[in-house]
Amino acid sequence: MSTALLSTADELHARVRHGRRAVVMTMGALHEGHATLIRAAREAAGPDGEVVVTVFVNPLQFGAGEDLDRYPRTLDADLKLAEQAGADAVFAPSVDEVYPGGEPQVRVSAGPMGERLEGASRPGHFDGMLTVVAKLLHLTRPDAALFGQKDAQQLALIRRMVRDLNFGVEIVAVPTVREEDGLALSSRNRYLSPGERRTALALSGALFAGRDRHAAQEALRARAREVPSTQARAEALSAIGESRAAADAHAVATAAPGGPAAVRAAARQVLDEAARFDPPLRLDYLALVDPADFTEIGDDFTGEAVLAVAARVGTTRLIDNLPLTFGAAS
């Protein structure tokens, strides 16, 4: 197949549509994570549908001192990757095409959720992101739009905007793509020196440590619920690696630190160690939040949660997250 390169909305609107249109929005510098999104979009669109990849470096979501000017522009390579992954068209508009007459006076506000975590670190970022997503949804007119779970807060805000403002589009989440060593794929990984990249592995390492502590705790709780007798409880504990023959399973399962507190502690230990590396990791935030509003969860929380981290290594700022489920919902 040959992937069309389009630069205006008129060109895009002139294309004949037969089936579903699925859109993947990017800022270019495409990598395997984007390719995974495009392949998922191909499935969502179906054999008779169309996949459109947008490539647009949005100036509204870059704050003062951020990397707008040095953000990589690799359109030729992006077009090739998009074609190999199954895109029918790449829509790469100019700033004037997206924002005719200059920066828009009317913008989408991200509200309170947009002021937390990434929003607190990058004021105005999510307002700019939602504004361009809204514009690109209008320009591309898709049936479905696919976004990666690595940008969990962005995904949550887009879903909220689509629901609150009655956009007629399906938002599809695609799991984070990682390199073999666990580092989440990102266009910004190319900025890392070999030493910085080794330090950056602490982000995923912290998330995995929190996940593993959570899994052990949940397994212990489940075993405690299933085993009725005191002796059998002790044997169950020993079977999963807790050599506490005299312990009662219920007491162990509820002992501090447990639940969200234990997850945070396990993740923070990895990040604290990385702060002493050369070069060091400089933590921005570690948070365990409710994906509905990105507020911190309490120790009695049950349901889906997101363990999120952001940090700088050298001059590069990286984010990552993992979904977790606590309590009865697990």
From TrEMBL:
Its EC number is 6.3.2.1. It is found in: Cytoplasm. Keywords: ATP-binding, Cytoplasm, Ligase, Nucleotide-binding, Pantothenate biosynthesis. The active site is at residue 34. Gene3D superfamilies: HUPs, Pantoate-beta-alanine ligase, C-terminal domain. (R)-pantoate binds at residues 61, 154. Pathway: Cofactor biosynthesis; (R)-pantothenate biosynthesis; (R)-pantothenate from (R)-pantoate and beta-alanine: step 1/1. InterPro entries: Pantoate_ligase, Pantoate_ligase_C, Rossmann-like_a/b/a_fold. It catalyses: (R)-pantoate + beta-alanine + ATP = (R)-pantothenate + AMP + diphosphate + H(+). It is an enzyme of class 6 (ligase). Beta-alanine binds at residue 61. Homodimer. Belongs to the pantothenate synthetase family. The reaction proceeds by a bi uni uni bi ping pong mechanism. This is Pantothenate synthetase.
